[in-house]
Write a structure and sequence with these properties.
By secondary structure, the protein is α+β, with helices and mostly antiparallel strands. It has helices spanning 49-70, 89-92, 121-137, 146-155, 175-181, 188-193, 203-223, 225-237, 241-248, 259-273, 296-304, 317-330, 335-344, 349-359, 364-373, 379-392, 397-409, 413-426, 431-443, 447-459, 467-484, and strands at residues 8-12, 33-37, 41-45, 81-85, 100-105, 113-115, 169-170, 279-280, 290-294. Strands 1-5-6-4-3-2-9 form a 7-stranded mixed sheet. A two-stranded antiparallel ribbon has the order 7-8.
């Protein structure tokens, strides 16, 4: 189980620098916080009830547009996606790196947690559509090369251009993508050859790489829809992406000198023509939004569960300590506050974790904190804590994954298999969850299944991940390829469907 606890899918949009505004506690004159629940989301926010409801409706609509815009029969989305949306953009700056207008934390005990300023606005909806496409696509495609993963997410940004009440469309042309790639000067070979990620170089190079991937997908959707559909079916079945591309588009094989030059010419003509098709997306009526009040203790706990970066720089320790102290005044057993204290004072970690579990025995985070605080020789107690975590959070991929990893380490792979499979099903975008399933499958002698899942794990590693963090996955993939030979197909239960 690799350490990718808070792998983020950053939103690469320029956000104006701002000085973070002090948080006003609801019990000291600040605005009340509320939770808005939809079919797929739990939105934590602090604007008025009406605006909070509108935002929850927007978030749910964007996800449904992505699901129905991509698939005639959309994949099921189990679990709940959390959204933290402070109405103050200045306050949002406490949690976001520089030039980031929002992000998705994938490795939390709660599951995917989206952090954006509220209300969303045009850019917020566009970027939300991009990130939600990653989550939806990971449930359908066993393999996703870098160009396809980012090109498809960029293509689906068009569903975010319509607000609540307007007729939404898919297939339009996001202006920021078009402006990055037109006039078109070629370069499609670079994105087709990118094995694991498109990002590289400075921000301008990254923006152009994404735009090239977008242009390729847009061109294929509109000029070669049948072939592109065949290619997607091959990705669903887990075929090696380079082989799939070569078999569907042999005339544009990057390994053949000059072949991609012809593809560049076709894409350039397509963009210059300026005639792009799009279609309306019609959704069934959405169920009503449910509103639940949040206490001041809840608001502090949620805020302290997020990374505090103050536009990319760590806050002074005394500022974080002040919020921890305030949270503990409201709730002496606040799990997020005690978790932070455990990190600040490792010698007290076990005692603090025990306080958290005593105060909140139904909180999955408390039991995970206890499991992490226990010494190595306390394996039986750690396993007990992890079982409590799974009991408290049966839909927590992190809890399931942690228990599966613990069982694998003690030679109980058969017992670990259903846990690891469920974790990978809940979080098919999670390289750590997939990697644990690989270890279990390999230990059970299912070598080719393990190879298929490890290929997926490498595919879903976050864009921009450094080479040191990527290396263990690539090393295991190379070892499995050498040992297992040709891949028979995707592993049962590894697709999250």
């Amino acid at each position: 189980m690799r350490a990718l606890r808070l792998a983020t899918l950053s939103v690469l949009l320029a956000a104006p620098p701002a000085r973070p505004q002090e948080f006003e506690c609801p019990d000291h004159g600040g605005p009340p916080w509320r939770e808005m629940r939809t079919v797929h989301f739990s939105v934590w926010t602090d604007p008025s009830s009406g605006k909070a409801r509108e935002m929850a409706e927007e978030v749910e609509q964007v996800l449904e547009l992505v699901r129905h815009g991509l698939f005639k029969t959309p994949p099921h989305m189990p679990g709940v996606i959390r959204v933290f949306a402070p109405r103050s953009k200045e306050e949002f700056g406490l949690f976001a790196s520089k030039n980031v207008a929002g992000f998705v934390a994938l490795g939390t005990a709660w599951g995917p947690t989206i952090v954006v300023p509220g209300p969303l606005g045009d850019w917020g909806r566009i970027r939300l559509a991009h990130e939600l496409t990653h989550l939806v696509a990971s449930r359908a495609f066993a393999r996703q090369p870098a160009w396809f993963r980012e090109g498809l997410a960029s293509f689906m940004e068009s569903v975010g251009t319509s607000g609540v009440g307007a007729t939404p469309t898919v297939g339009g042309v996001p202006r920021h993508r078009f402006a990055s790639v037109f006039p078109y000067h070629g370069g499609v070979a670079s994105v087709l050859r990118a094995r694991y990620q498109l990002l590289g170089g400075d921000a301008r190079d990254a923006s152009r790489s994404y735009a090239l991937a977008w242009a390729l997908v847009h061109f294929l959707v509109n000029r070669h829809p049948q072939e592109f559909g065949q290619l997607q079916l091959r990705f669903v079945k887990g075929q090696e992406p380079a082989t799939a591309w070569k078999e569907v588009f042999p005339q544009w094989d990057p390994a053949v000198p000059g072949a991609t030059d012809e593809l560049d010419g076709e894409i350039g003509k397509y963009l210059a023509r300026g005639s792009f098709g799009y279609r309306d997306v019609h959704l069934p009526p959405a169920p009503p939004v449910t509103e639940l009040p949040l206490t001041a203790a809840d608001a502090h706990d949620i805020r302290l569960s997020l990374p505090w970066w103050n536009r990319g720089e760590k806050l002074p320790p005394e500022r974080l300590q002040a919020e921890v102290d305030e949270a503990l005044r409201h709730d002496p057993g606040c799990v997020a506050a005690l978790s932070l204290l455990a990190g600040m004072h490792p010698e007290r970690a076990l005692a603090l974790a025990e306080e958290a579990t005593a105060a909140h025995p139904d909180d999955v985070r408390a039991w995970l904190l206890l499991a992490e605080a226990l010494p190595r020789e306390a394996a039986p107690r750690r396993e007990q804590a992890l079982r409590k975590a799974v009991e408290a959070g049966p839909a927590s991929a992190r809890a399931l994954n942690s228990l599966a990893w613990q069982l694998l380490g003690t030679g109980r792979s058969r017992e670990a298999l259903p846990l690891a499979s469920k974790a990978a099903g809940l979080a098919p975008w999670g390289a750590a969850e997939l990697d644990t399933l690989v270890g279990v499958l390999e230990d059970l002698g299912r070598c080719q299944d393990a190879l298929a899942v490890e290929r997926r794990a490498v595919d879903v590693l976050p864009e921009g991940l450094d080479e040191k963090s990527r290396a263990p996955y690539l090393e295991r993939l190379a070892r499995l390829q050498a040992r297992c030979g040709p891949m028979a197909g995707p592993a049962p239960g590894a697709g999250g469907k």
